[in-house]
Design goal:
By secondary structure, the protein is an alpha/beta fold. The protein has six helices and six strands. The structure holds flavin mononucleotide. The site of flavin mononucleotide has 20 residues, from helix 1, strand 3 and strand 5.
Length: 187
């Protein structure tokens, strides 16, 4: 059974990226995976302070990242869901990913060779004008560095809370991404 960790990066607990992320989780569960969903906005995650003490072990900052580190390490796949804020992914997700720097103490071993899924929602009309393309570029570069694979990206132009419910095409794409994360063999 695959272990999937879902990181939700929007402050809107029932917003568009969360709706699509929940559909993906439903697809993954249906396909037999185990899914844990984390609402990042509700956590106390401080920014990396570049103390570099992690070079000898793990991150020393005592906050809500500490229980998240073992979950990240145990995950076969990580699903990142975020709204586009100021032409890239949200600060809530950024502050969490920055803290993955803490894995350097073990040469990134715990956060490497995973599968990733990405869900991005934005108010503008497309990938380019919204800036979603910048988030995708970052995730692609990150995955190359972490020797990990992006299994799929679901993105869409959605404004008000709940708009995602009106897009059966996006809901289906998210569901299919969840299924794929649950079933695709890790290379
Ligand atoms: C602070 C803030 C910044 C935003 N910046 C952008 C942006 O740069 N590009 C864009 O297309 N939409 C932007 N939006 C719109 C959101 O990305 C859009 O409403 C999205 O569907 C929200 O997803 P959510 O419901 O999951 O939070 C912004 C919204 C907020 C609140």
């Amino acid at each position: 059974m695959k272990n999937i960790l879902l990181l939700k990066g929007s402050p809107r607990e029932k917003g568009n990226s969360a709706i699509l992320a929940d559909r993906a989780a439903a697809g993954a569960l249906e396909a037999g995976a185990q899914v844990e969903s984390i609402y990042l906005h509700g956590l106390d995650i401080r920014p990396c302070d570049a103390c570099d003490l992690c070079t000898d072990g793990m991150c020393v900052i005592e906050d809500d990242m500490q229980p998240l580190y073992p979950k990240l390490a145990a995950a076969d796949a990580i699903l990142l869901a975020s709204p586009v804020y100021w032409f890239t992914y949200s600060a809530q997700l950024k502050v969490c990913i920055d803290r993955w720097y803490g894995f350097q103490g073990h040469h990134w071993k715990e956060i490497s060779r995973k599968q990733f899924g990405v869900i991005l929602t934005y108010g503008d009309t497309d990938l380019y004008t919204s800036g979603a393309i910048n988030a995708i570029h970052t995730f692609e570069t990150m995955c190359r560095f972490l020797k990990s694979e992006i299994i799929g990206i679901v993105h869409g132009s959605l404004g008000d809370v709940g708009d995602a419910e009106k897009h059966p095409d996006l809901l289906q794409q998210a569901y299919d991404l969840g299924k794929l994360l649950a079933t695709e063999k890790i290379k």
